[in-house]
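step: validate -> pass
step: tokenize input -> pass
step: predict -> running
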Amino acid sequence: MPALDYPPPLRRLIAQLKSLPGLGPRSAERLMLWLMQDQGRIEPMLDAFAGASARIVACEDCGFFMEKGQECALCHDPRRQRSVICVVEQAADVLRLERSGAYQGQYHVLGGRLSPLDNVTPEDLRIEPLIQRARASGMEEVILAVGSDVEGEATASYLGDLLRQEGLAVTRLAQGLPAGGGLDHADELTLYQALHGRRRL
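step: predict -> pass
step: emit ->
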């Protein structure tokens, strides 16, 4: 006798949920059960997905999300500095930097980072539009706000070489100890970067 399992439509739903970042098989199953326990939860979620799919696109210039037919809130904000552009991996990184309140320039979303093991090459990222923006808009500085892991460092090195050839000043976010953290929880690489990135008081 075959083992009992969920009906095929629910197995397909679990498979789709499991493909989302951060959801494993058990989390996907729990989410499916939560959705199915109250049928009223599914329709609003489907409407939200359909609305986002139909009305949200990436800005051709910066790569951040915008509503179709509307101006990009980032690119058309007159208060933003036009001479500085901050390069990030994903659109969510824009919001993280914005919430800090420390940056008022332009942004450019790459759409990922270089990763030969995952077959992510320069052609897969929004690098050419970045070079074109830098040439056309009179940028003075490009801030590379990509990760500090191996892929992030490779991406920063690759972009730095390209942008310096265009005569641009290229900077990298400072790295080191987190605010409110002590030395007891810092690894060797973090301490190394903190020492080399020290500044005069």
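step: describe -> The two ends are 74 Å apart (CA to CA).
step: cleanup -> pass
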